[in-house]
Amino acid sequence: MYRSQRWQHSTSASKPSTGAILEPYGPGKALQAVVGLCREQRWGEALGAYEELKSRGLRPNTVLRNGVISTLGRRRRWELAWHFLKKTASEGCELDAVSFNAAATASAADNQWPQTLELLCRTIEGSDGVSPDVFTFNSALTSFSRASLWAASLKVLRQMVARSAQPDMVTFNSAVSSAEKGCQWKQAISLLREASQRQLGPGIAALGAGISAADKSGRWPLALELLGYVASCGVQPGQIVFGATLSALEKGKCWEKGLSLWRELRSRGIETGIISGSSVLSATSKCQQWELGLELLGELRRADGPSAGILDVVALSAAIGACEVASLWQGSLGLLSEMRDSGMQLDATAFGAT
Known about the structure:
With 354 residues, the chain is mostly helical.
């Protein structure tokens, strides 16, 4: 078996090699050497060695070609992976789903959704004798999610179902994320329900995206419902999920529910972060609950954990608003001074107090 070793030939790992990398090896060892280069992710030498195999009259198999494409993908060389795939296909070399999936993964990892889409279309057309599988579809969905192309994500999902490819948790995580980024809360919730109907427990990423979609659309009851579902699954939500839920409650002016949730999390020793506390403080201020707002300001200052005593512009502006309602002008001035000393950009509330 080929084992890692220092190559005598000084070839660069940052560009394809053209040297006689495999000269010391016979046919069998030469193939093993290329496999070893792929395992070590030495993409430049792997490409050069692959071409050298061909020049010596050896026929690299599909597994070896897939290894080269995967190596290029892991090294973020999606253009070379794409070129290598098309070149080998044009030469009549046998390719399989793994070949296309490796190239699609490389493109998706570098946010190259047009290339990922083209790869998916080629497999759907079947011109290369390869059909798409769940990994091919998921690569496209990942690309579309990162590019916030929610409509394209839904089309790919429907095409996937039509071709009897079974969606998995990764599929729905990407699709829900796309819908959330596109502010399509109805689509996001519909996808979560579809995942549940398929008995696929959506991951925390999908549930978090669903809560965020509910937040952006001002559907606070839905945000609370999803948060409850997360808890029933035995999953511990993170700061982003809690923050989105509290933000939805703030937008709905549900200061009581927001304050109750925030204090419950605090009592359980769960770190809620600056944004969560700011949302609750802002909600109390909007609802003219200035006494509670000032009380909450004190709690935030006394908080433990990584965000202890740290307040952002939203929290301080809300506290200024509470001071204004209570005619505590000295408190307002003190908070304004704190914002300026921290280099914060004053918002409309803070400007109104100046």
